[in-house]
Amino acid sequence: MKAALYYSNSDIRIVEMDKPRAGMGEIVVKMRRCGICGSDLMEWYRVRSAPRVLGHEMVGEIVEVGEGVEKYSLGERVFVSHHVPCNTCHWCLKGHHSVCDTLRRTNYHPGGFAEYIKVPPINVERGVFLLPPELTWDEGVFIEPLGCVVRGQRMAGVETGDSVLVVGVGVTGILHLKYAKALGASTLLAADVNPFKLMMAKRAGADHTIDAKGDVGKKTRDLLGRGADVVIVTAPVKAAFDDGFRSVDRGGSVLLFAPLRPEERYDLNVWEIWRDEVKVVTSYAASPRDLEVAIEVLRSGRVEVEDMVTHHFPLSAASEAFRVAVSGERSLKVILHPDDEKV
Length: 343
What we know:
Layout: E1 2-8, E2 11-16, E3 27-35, H1 43-46, E4 52-53, E5 57-65, E6 77-80, H2 90-93, H3 101-105, E7 116-119, H4 121-126, E8 128-130, H5 137-140, H6 143-156, E9 163-167, H7 171-182, E10 187-192, H8 195-203, E11 208-211, H9 216-224, E12 228-233, H10 238-247, E13 248-256, H11 270-275, E14 279-282, H12 288-300, E15 309-314, H13 318-327, E16 333-337
Parallel strand pairs: 9-10, 9-12, 10-11, 12-13, 13-14, 15-16
Antiparallel strand pairs: 1-2, 1-4, 3-5, 3-7, 3-16, 5-6, 6-8
Helix pairs in contact: 6-7, 6-12, 9-10
């Protein structure tokens, strides 16, 4: 089978690999769509484990069922979660499934940027979700990133009537806007340096867009008369963190949805955070509960995502797909599909 082997953002090689076979408790899924995630583009993060087959926003069709698998059948359309929690450790029992050791070491093989994946028994048990008939393959690609957004906004406490500022409106930023609107946020603001992404944010429901080359904090306060109730930072740069903390209202929350590099440090004015009772929260990945919410939100149409798909590429053109996704000039969600399928 074909697979896209990642060496760096500019070095993606199409290689031949053995097609996986399902063992005891396993299934094999044919990839029908796999999205390129923002985390796939964080080269400093990905090159540490290169070469490898990336891809975790994958939906497909079950083509082989191993002995002992009773929940799933040939031909079923599924989303497969690459990371699954144990559900029994200290962190899982406290609701922090995404910091579970099991979640951090589980995965399917070899990765979503391949014609087929093999799903190990623990993922079959806890990470396979039937794709509702209402959802297209493209919509299914958004289950994983939207699940992460669901978790983040739950951690940040987004509520009906809140004003929400999203700093950085790539794919996850747009999803944050759409989901906050679905939750009943009263005013949505989007900040970015890219005019195309600000235009897409406006289409996604942002009431106001802000050029992040200017003073985002001042503009936010001018528009709202105060700071935002919730600020969500999706851009992994210090300038975006600065904009977030300058824009939050007293008693508000700042969700750090994107990380800085491990070696980077960020200076935080604890006095201001303490005095203004600002809550600082982080979120990582998605739990099964978050993914279930994401699937239902997509199925019901409360969040619509097909307008976010800007590019499709066959698997054999993965290198070009990465180039387009990295450039970000006029792209949002870039999706790979099998070579033998017309899109």
